[in-house]
Specification:
Radius of gyration: 29 Å
Strand order of the largest sheet: 5-6-4-7-8
Amino acid sequence: MRASISDSGALTALGHLVVAAYLRSRGWRREDTSFSRYLAVWTYTDRDGIAYEANVPTDPDIRDYAARAAEVLAVLEAVEGRSQTEVYRDITHVSCDVIRVRLPVPSVDDAIAIQAGVSLVTGVRSMMEAAACAALEPRPVYGPRKADKVEDYLRQVRLGQTESGSYVLTVLSPVAPELTPQLVLAEMPEEDPFQRQVVRTLVQATAAMASAARAACDTGRIDAFDAAVAAGVSANLCEAVNEIGSQWPGADVEVGVSWAPSRPGPTHISGRTRLTRDALATIAEAAREFRKRRPRPSFRAKGQVMILDRTQDQPATVIFAEVDGVVRKIRVQLSDADHGKAQAAYRDDLVVGCSGELVLTGRQYQLQDPHDFAIEDR
């Protein structure tokens, strides 16, 4: 026996526009005629030729709105062969892309520790943020400051009810219903709303991340992750996925998407990706490499001059300076005047400082656009 929804508050909250969008996405058709200005008549014929009718209340102020909404749910329960709670949930999600993050939980009640839950939600938020950044502009690393469009999107995203089947956290990403023009011009390219672009980027990026992890395990190189940046993979996304998986060491992470019924999703993009326990360690390392290679503006290299390279037309200086707590070789192209200072520092074993943009090329650090070269105190 299926449960029925009788709570008047829940039934009244079922807006008629949302119900209309759901019915339209399910193949129902609104009739032009109506026997009441407070009701809209919708009809549906199933594969067996059986016709159904639903009278949808259109004015939330009428006294029997909840009762009428209950009648609609009863009709849909009969047509779809599902419980009213399932139908109700799908109606409220009709204009939302639903992202599901699934994790195996070693318990009989699908419960998790509260601290693990906090970390999970934080990781999922970071995942959506990284996807939103990549939808605007794919990059290997994003800094702490995010575009206003990304912040606006994150304010719209909601956490849904958890679902059974291990531990499933749901994220609701609202998206506008699709409106088809009467005349479609072939030369007019269609562009999805930004909310859909974010979810599409997330699907593409997680699939590319899983593929890159497999390739990196085979080759021992990061090339596949570099190529996946164009699909939305970034250090931020890798870190977010790793944070999600770190709560259950040795477990897989699955990211799936159900497209909003009111705006059908791209059929050529798979909606589910599994990131295996083996892949997560590689993904974490890829994030570290992305971070390490990120250009750092206004970097001050302070250390000793160890090498003066005269083999090139432009003399180069190598400074042994600290980068992230580790002493590294940093190659600097200095002006003739500063190169003379570097020679004196090398001869007298002095500490020098030089500012510029620190860039990692291959395995070598370079300080580009060097300036403010000076002898410094130890």
